[in-house]
Structures are given as C-alpha cells and as structure tokens.
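A reminder before we start the practical. When you read a complex entry, don't treat the lines as separate problems. The point of joint prediction is that each chain is placed relative to the others, so the output describes one connected object in space. Small molecules and nucleic acid strands, if listed, are placed in the same frame. In the example below there are two entries. Take a minute to note the order of the lines before looking further.
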Amino acid sequence: MTQKSSNKITIMGGGLAGCFLATLLANRGYKVELFEKLSKEEISNVNSNRSYNITFLAYGIEMLKQAKIWTTIKPQTHLLKGASTQLSKNSKPIFTPTYDEKHEYYAISRSCLLTIMIDTLSKNPLVSLHFNTELLSIDRYEKTIIVENVKTKKIETFACDVVIGADGVNSLVRPFLQQGQDTSHSQEYSSGGYKQFTISKEQVDALQLQKGVSYTWSAQGKYILAFPNLDDSLASLLIYPQDNDAFDSLKTEKSIYSLINEDFPFLSLINKNIAEQLLANSKGVFVTIHTDPWYYKDFITLVGDAAHGFYPFFGQGTSAAFGDCMKLVELIDKYGTDWQKIFPLYQEARKKHMDALGELSKEGLMRYARNKRADFETIYDKLESIGHTLLPKYINPPIVAPVMNDPEHTADYVENAKRQRKIAKRIGASLAATMLVGLVAAYENVQTKKKN
Amino acid sequence: MIKQKITIIGSGLAGSFLAVLLAQRGYKVEIYERLPKEEICDVASMRSYNLVLFGYGINLLKEAGLWDILEPHLLPLKGTVTHIASSTKPVVTPADTKDMHYFTISRAQLADILLKEATHHQSVSFYDNTSFVAVNRHEKTMVVKNNKTKKITTLPYDVLIGADGTNSLVRSFIQQNQTTHHRQEYAQWNYKQFSFGPELVAKIGLEKKFVHTWTQKDTFIIAHPDHDDSLAAMFVLPKKLSITLHSAENITSYFKENFPDLLPAIDEITQVILKNPDGNFATILTEPWYYKDSMAIIGDAAHGFYPFFGQGTSAAFGDCMQLCKLIDEYNSDWEKIFPLYQEERKKNTDALAELSKEALMKNLRFKKADYDAIYDKLQTVAHTLFPNIIYPPFSQTITNDPGRAAEHRKHYYRQRKMANKFGVSLIVKGVEETLSIYEKLKKS
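Here is the predicted structure of the whole assembly.
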C-alpha cells in the first residue's frame, strides 16, 4: 500500500497557502504531492461561505509576479481607487484615495485566485493533486501519512520525505508536529463575530455608491466593511467586534430592519435583501493563533494560518501566507533540501513578525469599532503623518502604512512605533493629542446640540 | 437501560483505574494500549519509578475497593532523610504516623496490579500493541493501527476517554476547532534514574524504609526504598550539566565533588547514566478537556506536572473518581458530566502543577536555614497552639486533600500575607540569619 517516493514535497491543504507553495516549488522543479479534504469544486466555489475578497498591495503583487502567475491573475483583479470611511451615520464620509503611481491596490475574489492556481497546477506534470482526501494521522518515525478518501472511505498510507502543513487555523498537521515537543500554543477567539452579505451591482447603483471604492460604515459597537467585486457588487461584512451575542438579537427581519434604520439609514433602501442574507448565513468568528514551534526536525513544518492565524483586519492574511511560502523557497534556493537547516531559519525569520501582525490585527478590529473622530489613536496618527511629511527622516509615519507595504518586518515597525510614541510622550505630543481630542469632542457635541 | 460502551486509550495507571471503576458500574469497557503488555508492567524499564501515595490516594484506592489487593505490595515509609552536605549530619524527618501514613510502590507494579484487576472483569476487553491513530468526531469512529501487523482498522465508539499521558493524541483531536488554550513547558532540569542494591545501601549506611534526598546547589537526588531495601533513585540535574556528564571520568569527578556519600555506588551509577537517555519534566496546562458528549481526557493528558509533590498518580485517580461520581449522579448524561468534571478538577490540578514547580525549586535549595523551611516550622508550632485560627503548612493539608488544592493554596498565601504584616517575616529572617551564621561557624 505504501508508495515509493523520491525526494518529493507533500503539502497538506489546497487553500491559498498550499497552492501558492506548490506553484513556487513546481516552478523550481520539485515534485509536489498536494492533499485537500474538499473536492476541487467545493474549494473554489464562489457561492460558498469561504469566498471573500482579498486585497493586494505592492508587496503581494510582487510575490505573485515572482510566482509567475501575475499575468494570468491581473485581468481578474479590480483596481481599488480608495477607501471611504463613515464614522457615524450623521458624519460625512472621509475619502482616502489609495491609488497612485506608486501604490497599486488590487482586490480579487478568493475563489477566482484559487481557481487560477489550481488550473495551473493541474497542468504541471510535477504536481499530483489529491482532492477529497483528508489527513488522518502522521507517523513521524516511519515518515508516513495516513489519509482517507472522504467519498470512498478508503484509507491509504503514503511515504513522505517532508510534510508541509497548509491546512489553516485548525491545522491537524500542527498537533502531530508539536507532539512531545516543548510547545506553546494559544488560540484565542475574539469576543465578537461577523456575518457576510452581498450588495449587488444594481443596489450599488441605486444607493449611489462609488465604484472601485471600499467602504467602512461605523456605528456604536458595530460596523460594516464592503469591498468591491469585479462586477461592481460589494462583498460586505457586518461585524460586532466585541459582542458575539449581538447576532442572537438579530433573528427576525424586523430586528434587522430596525438595526439598519437606526445605525445604517443609508442602506434602508435594501434592508429587505440584507435581512434575507443575514438570516440565511451563519456567523463567523475571529481567531488569533500564536504557536511554537513551527517545525519538527527535518520532517514537518507549517505555512499560513496553520502557523499564525489572525483577524483579517489588516488585509494581510493572504500576503502573510504567501510571504511564508516565499521565505521557505528562498531558503530552499540557498540550502537545497537541507530541511534541518531551513526550518529553524524559516521560523526565526517569520514568526516574530507574524506574531506582531496578529497583535496589530486585534487592535485594528477594536479600532474600527470606536466610531469617534475624537479618538486619541486617530488624532495621534494624524499628528504622526503630519510630522512625517515635515521631517520624513526623523519621524516615522503611522504604523499602518509601512506594515501594509512590508509586513515582513512588522515586529521592527512595532518596535519603532513604540519608541517614537515614548519620545512623543516625553515632549508632550500626547498632551497635544489629548487636548485635540477634547476640542474635537466639544465641537461635535455643539454640532449635535445645534441639530437637535 | 443498556449502558454504553466506553473506549479508553492508554492502559497506564489512569486508564486501568478508570476501567476498574467503570466495570464496577456495569459499563462495557475497551482499552487500547500502544505498547505490548509486558512492557507496561516491566519493573526494570525506564518507565518505572517509585511513586508515593498519601492519604488522598489511599482513600481513592479504598473507595475503589482495591485496598486489600494493593496493601501487601505497598511499603510504608518511615520518613525522609535529607543529606545536606557530607560534613553535616543528615536531617531526619520522621513520618507523622498518627494521622498521615504514606506508602511507596513501583509504578510498573501498580500498573500491573491495576491492569490485572481491570481485565479480570468480563466486561473489560484489552488490546495491547494497538496505537490510536486518528478519530472522526462526527461519525464517532476511530482509526487504530496494530503495531505488529501494521494493519489499520476503523472502529466505532460511543464515548472515548484519553488516558494517553503527557503527549496525548486524544487531546489534540478533542481540541481541534475548539477554543483552545494549551501550554506545555519543560523544566530546565532533566533526570536520570539508577538504583542502589541492598548491599550498597548497607555499605553507604543509609537508614532503611526512609526516602533519602541529597541536595546540592542546582542538583539533587531523591531515592525511594523498595521492599528488598534497595533504593530507586532519581538524579535531577540541569540540562546543561547533563550534557557534560558523558564519560565515566566526568561522572566520577562530579560525584566526588558533589555527592561523596554515594561514591561506593559509583560504578553502578556511571553505567546507568551512560546507558539511559535523560527523562524530562513537563508541565501541561490545557483546556478544554472534552469534546461535546463523546470525548474527554484524564490524568497526565489533562494536566502534566512535575513529580516532586507526590500527587501525579493521586491526581489521575482523582480524575477517574470525579468522573464516576458524576456518572452515578447524572446517569451517562455526558453532555452534563464532562463540563462539570472539568470545572471540578481543573482548578485543583492547575494549582498542583504550580505547587509541583515550587516543590522542585524547594528541593533544589534545601537548607536548614531556608526561609520557607523556618516559616513552615513556625506555622506548625502556631497551628498546634491555635488549631482553629492558624492553618498548618500547606504541604501537609494538600498532600492529604489535593481535591481542594486550589483552596488550600489560597488560604496559605492569605495567611502568609497577614503574617508579613504582623512582622513574622522579620522574625523568620532573624532566625534564618542566626542559623546560617551558626552553621558557618560550625563548619570553620
């Protein structure tokens, strides 16, 4: 039953990370065997729960170029012109253009990206794809994996030279890797949750929304994020960052109508359609994973969410997974298949930055929920960007910008930001920010009073 | 009502004890064990060491109706002898036999007796040489592998209990997709095992039926007696040091300098240290302990801790007993039983894990002039005077009642805080200084 192997790489999981890694390895002439629990149709199904939009900045695009798939992917992407943020139903939206010559910003649907990669892989003779095949167990001593065909229920044993787990947040490769090793693993779920819905092209027109713009609509304790699809519809999320139980009170059409009228009145035109979708879709939760180690000897390692799950709020989940794959093949280019050398270097290069991204994403989730212009963080960031424009050499820009463009050094940026903030405190910048917060809040108070 | 079948993974102490309790309650039990039967019950193997049973563990064995079978195999301990340095007289702490009997037995022997007792029941089937490989929680099937024939089989289960130790695989499957917190830390110390035969014990002149400990700056040796008056010893040493002890010369010179008392046994010690790999100590804090109404973990799989508090085995037995009490109360309503089981047990086993860590540190710096030792003495005296107001030192309360470890620990720290306020710590500090000056004077 055991098949003979000759220096091939086994990848568990046919999601974005697994397929991207397979592409990179096949480009380099390695034999790749990829196992995926779902069927080919299921994993790239546009209408599934797993479908959402992914955004790429220069950093992500560069990686797609290196994987030699950018030219195939580009026609399917959507150039984002900017982001519109509305802090409360009464305030005017703030428009931040994101596109200029230097900063390209693209959105693509997950299923589309995946379909392209799978199609390319299935044409490559070096790659064998096993769909409908679930991992059951890994034997680290005999270097075998046991898998089960979910359709036929047939159980098979495969010999492996090296196994790479790209099997997501709930990775099964990870526990087998960490068994008996000095392990530290924490898996925290946010106290909040989200539900998906779509605003169709016709509705976008009816609501007079701009095309090619991502939207954030904030309200007290909740917000909606919407990203444009290629057909100009908006893939949207209703998010309660702190209150997971909030969805329990949204179980009738009536309750959803009153939510929209109360907090998002500009969407009331389509409230019937939103209510239908929210009632039909299941609730998602956000998870942050910090785990250590990422490898077992020279036999198993992890990439993507399996190694570092975090909230999607920094728009870096996919880029981070791709970054893992790039780092891994970079080391392979240098050391061949000397996994014993590669794995520790790989973890060292990636883990601290990915953990920092995890923490930043958590902060990002919370920040969207605070719907005030008079927010200390917002004003501090503004001050920082003004300072950066005046003295670009001495003052770093707010952390979001460098991290989005270069997530590979997140830990360093966090360190710098902390240092800068400490100095700012000392010279009284935080005092100035606090005063501004007070002023803006007072001004807003007066404004609302006038209205009433 | 036909009772469900309960599948246990692992036939160590926890698994066998649970099988006995469940069989007594009329459940059909299946035990799967990775190793061949002979190996689990092999007294001479690396997996065997001597463990200690205090009042709490003894009561659990009595409750399970196993006391009469076990008692002849248990060796009552007379107390502890602490060898601080070869120049000073060892400190003898006799056991308080009035209300605190305690016993020692080798792990392998206890495992053997419990497993025999379990398989004695007709409703218990035992499969050795069979590794648990995977589980499908939705279909309630598991995959096992016969280690001899390498054959893989899929089997159904009703309730699956993981008694598969520190590196539990059942745990990994339970926690998949659940909100999980898992921490597995290894101590900076490893251990090596060796034993002294009865002749050597006599030659070195060690008291019989006592637990002996030798302490040095960052290492110690703890040895438990056997029935034949031999001693089973555990040598605890920093990982760094362990690497340097790779030749007979190094070992001899190390013992000459640090444990000169033991030089008569140096040949045996050297042989074993060179041959056996190091053991390590893990602390595991993990949750959840269960999956819905179909899977749970017991013993080391749920809570690994260092063996220096003598509570590892009792804690595993305690898990089994708690589980069975809830079974009696709720009649196989596992959805109700498992959360209550974790709630009742976890807080105490977590506290025990912390205490075991503290005990390792305490063993490593045992001196007569040690602050904690003096504080404990004061507390004992005070407790004798005002038994209603002042608690005894918590090592006493906990060894006999680890079922409420978390509570005892809280009391202890509260009392200590109060004592600090009243200036007791000043007095202790004074005594400590005086003692250490006295010891220094005596040495010079």
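Discuss with your neighbour: Residues 5-74+104-183+282-358 of chain B form a domain with the FAD/NAD(P)-binding domain fold (CATH 3.50.50.60). What might explain this?
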